[in-house]
């Protein structure tokens, strides 16, 4: 009989913990959740000391409905191996009676919750990035451009900041009105406009501008570094919006990098190891 021998792992190296369904707020009687990816040592604070890590707040695209928390978790694990804490967050759904700015208020509340609980989750509260896809990237861009804006701050965790130190955007609607025009023939397009922008169509133009990162850049204002990606075959959000956003930020003197993903549609064939590696390098440059 041959019994092989392996060494144990007393420091729990490379082990990742998934903390599911963390309730970070209740808005309009509705519980809001996030899932957190942390080193396994975070589970045993009496035995292990986990050095605080930079935080990535991830917002999955959902057409401004409630995001699916687990969509990107298999890929986000690699960022924990690279030295980050990752929180993927939900927000209220526009089609369930929560128009703008509900989703933005919720994401900002999640950031403040995480800062308030930084010690518990081994987070460095001074190194916070936000990363979103599609409508989640729209939220991420708005978070980056409206740090601590009182228009979007609710009563929860008011002693904490919702400003971020870096922004990653994947195929974001940068011009909301233009996006709805681009998708005019998509079933449900008009219903989503009513749910997201409200029943008074006379107010849509102003609300769409408030929701459009392209029109929220203030001349001469400093913003965190931005990393932008967009597929040039995107059939949901026009690729040209990213180019316009890139030039707006660059002309304003802000730090921004942009990548065109050749031949990529919305989600689907957009993703690759190169995307994730580029995101990690960008964040490492900011935080390490």
From TrEMBL:
The keyword rRNA processing does not apply. It comes from the Bacteria. Gene3D superfamilies: alpha/beta hydrolase (3.40.50.1820). The keyword Lyase does not apply. Keywords: Hydrolase. GO terms for molecular function: hydrolase activity. It holds the Pfam family BD-FAE. InterPro entries: AB_hydrolase_fold, BD-FAE-like_dom, GDXG_lipolytic_enzyme. Residues 48-248 form the BD-FAE-like domain. PANTHER family: AB HYDROLASE SUPERFAMILY PROTEIN C4A8.06C (PTHR48081), ALPHA_BETA HYDROLASE (PTHR48081:SF13). This is Alpha/beta hydrolase. It comes from Limosilactobacillus walteri. The lineage of its organism: Bacteria, Bacillati, Bacillota, Bacilli, Lactobacillales.
